[in-house]
UniProtKB/TrEMBL annotation:
Keyword presence, Isomerase: yes
Biological-process GO terms, alphabetical: dTDP-rhamnose biosynthetic process; polysaccharide biosynthetic process
Keywords associated with the record: Isomerase
Protein name per UniProt: dTDP-4-dehydrorhamnose 3,5-epimerase
Record lineage: Bacteria, Pseudomonadati, Pseudomonadota, Gammaproteobacteria, Moraxellales
Species of provenance: Acinetobacter apis
Length: 197
């Protein structure tokens, strides 16, 4: 297998490290291999998705996007990576009944480390760009659905996400994301996932 698979503290969230072949001319890697991806998931008893859409975003330093998710029947799993620049990526478990409900995992993704983050459906997702001109690619398991789109506010006190922000890095957040609700309100509005397998 041409990748290293790292399990996180939350079942289902995986960090994938593709094997990079480099010399003085540059480098080569398989950015995605369906067989290897399926093998990594099935060996861990996880569902194997089908990807239907690729998305590409471009962000300047400090841009913070999230925490986004879609409700069933349009829930999305995401395989995310950074191809240029640097971002800190986070996934929050919002599967009602999950042993890790409300917990999060964060990872730094860069154009140099080539790491990828597998985030199954049932997680809210967001990232902050740590450098200018950060390009973020992700494969999704479902199409975008405006009607199913939801978000949890990035700085929700209950989640207490340790975003790598200091006085030199002020988050730039869209008006839509600023209007997001906290996890407690999402629960009250039945805007979380109720089916955990």
């Amino acid at each position: 297998m041409n990748m290293n698979v790292i399990e996180t503290k939350i079942k289902g969230l995986l960090i994938l490290e593709p094997r990079v072949f480099g010399d003085d001319r540059g480098w080569f890697m398989e950015s995605f291999n369906q067989h290897n991806f399926e093998k990594a998931l099935t060996e861990r008893g996880l569902d194997v998705p089908q990807f239907v859409q690729d998305n590409h975003s471009f962000s300047q330093q400090g841009v913070l996007r999230g925490l986004h998710y879609q409700l069933d029947p349009h829930a999305q799993g995401k395989l995310v990576r950074v191809v240029q620049g640097r971002a800190w990526d986070v996934a929050v478990d919002i599967r009602e009944g999950s042993e890790t409900f409300g917990e999060w995992v964060g990872i730094e993704l860069t154009g140099e480390n080539h790491k990828q983050f597998w985030i199954p459906a049932g997680f809210a997702h967001g990232f902050v760009a740590l450098e200018d001109n950060t390009q973020f690619l992700y494969k999704t398991t479902n199409y975008y659905s405006k009607e199913s789109e939801r978000s949890i506010v990035w700085n929700d006190a209950e989640l207490n996400i340790a975003w790598p922000l200091d006085q030199s890095l002020t988050p730039l957040v869209s008006d839509k994301d600023k209007d997001s609700v906290g996890l407690a309100d999402a629960i009250k509005q039945n805007n979380i996932f109720i089916n955990v397998t």
